[in-house]
Hints:
Layout (H helix, E strand, L loop, with lengths): L3 H6 L8 E2 L2 E2 L5 H13 L12 E12 L2 E10 L6 E4 L4 E7 L8 E3 L23 E6 L5 E6 L11 E7 L1 H4 L4 E10 L4 H9 L8 H5 L8 E10 L4 E10 L9 E4 L9 E3 L5 E8 L6 E4 L5 E6 L2 E8 L1 E4 L4 E7 L6 E8 L5 E7 L15 E2 L5 H5 L13 E11 L3 E4 L10 E3 L4 E7 L6 E5 L4 E6 L2 E2 L4 E2 L1 E4 L4 E7 L5 E6 L2 H5 L3 E6 L21
Parallel strand pairs: 3-6, 5-10, 11-16, 12-24, 13-19, 15-23, 25-28, 27-36
Antiparallel strand pairs: 1-2, 3-4, 6-8, 7-9, 9-10, 11-14, 12-13, 16-21, 17-20, 17-22, 18-19, 18-21, 22-23, 25-26, 28-34, 29-33, 29-35, 30-31, 30-32, 30-34, 35-36
Amino acid sequence: MTSRRQFLRLSVVGTGLTLLGRDLRTRSRAAALSLWETFRNRWPFNSSRNAATTVLKVVSKPLTVNGRTVTRGSIQQADGTFGYVVTRDQGVDVEIVNTLEVPTTIHWHGLYIPNLQDGVPFVTQPPIPPGQSLRIQYPLLQDGTFWIHSHYGLQIQDYVSAPFLVLTPEQERWADRDVTVMLRDFSFTPSDQILKNLIAGEDGGGTAMAKSLSNFAWNQPRDVLVQGWNPTSQRFEWRTDRQPVKQPDVVYDALLANDRTLDDPEVIEARPGDTVVLRMIAASAFVSWFVDLGDLVGTLLRTDANPVEPIEGSVFQLATAQRLAIRVTLPDEPGLFPVLAYGQRSNMRCGVVIRTSQESLPSLNPQTDQWIGRLSFLQEQRLRSRTPLASRPVDNEIPVALTGPAPRYKWSLNNKVYPYRDPFRVRRGERVEIVFSNPSPMAHPMHLHGHEFEIVEINGQRLQGATRDTVMVPSGETCRIAFDANQPGIWAFHCHITYHDAEGMFNVVAYDDADLRWWQPEQVDQEDLRFR
């Protein structure tokens, strides 16, 4: 079987064939289309669009960063509206249309969803070919801030993602303004080239920004900002720590908030004294974040989509793929209030500006002299769920070591590099606990599809922590999550750092009665990881 590394190196020249609009490496276009048609013929959901159906198009579009225009992806409605917003009572009724030149899929991150509609290629479906569409319909059991994104190749890095909000009357009463801020990391280096560079051992992903920092004193102790806890005010705030700044796997050219750099940020118009809810979405491929409210104090209402006991702060941690809902009250005096997002282990930032006056925007540098440190378990240790699991015995305990990188940038779970056919098994009705240990040199944001879980232990200390769908496990630390196995199917379970996922830190959680017909791990090595 052709390995993913070999696949990336195979020449376009000489094949003379096309796979769903791209070069064929190991299988014919006819075979791929036949697989898709077989899947569609067995699709149990209504495929006829009606007046209530929202069309979501996966598209290519221009994006200008630092004065240079490139092509990236997007998920938008037929009229160009970015993302998707519904009320919980409406449910989901969409037709996903792939207008790209390559296959794609769409995953509904954090949602309870019929298993076949989860959108993971070669786990719950084949990828959607160019020019094809797929109808998605399901009732909504949750509400809050979610996001949708491709699960094909490296397309998260290529911006094939969008916000997905599920609204309720309670959320309508949250605040005077409701603002969504999508945070992403950006490089001019194509995502497949970054992965090739990582496999080849090039520092910082071999990007132009990494090369410009080749003389920087990496791994030297320096003063960095991290999140701290003020026991007097009972708030999260910045504190200074002494840490070595390790060079990240990927060094990015820019960080973007709602696709804009900080030298031209989005401006949120508001009135003095308004309350504003900030829905922060970490839609990055690699970077985790510190959200800095500046002079404002915010109340954290939800982690991912789930309510927590309110807790205050001016600095909050936000790991890759997570979401936060933070409410701030603006001062009665008019002014300008930057809401900044700092990339972990970097000196880069992005953000938006809330404006309640006619003042001109201040000059905000996307790059500063102040370096930022690592995320920690500090925030998780203080969060408490408002919807905790009922107390009951544990039926199934699954140990998961986050391992790697093996030589040539391979990441793994329990030292096994996906693809393989050895799922984590659960039975319907079980209380399941997954015990994470992280002996690797990096933190990993671990995401379980189709479920929400409670963080019940951190470094050996039991707690009734936040309810989440993604948890960041720092290097050298441990945690335990718990969930009830009440969502039958086969569900992806993986690190949400795109390059770790692509290089093996992936498996599935399979119920004993799951339909495994579309789980074809042998096909994963044949994915074209390029965006276009």
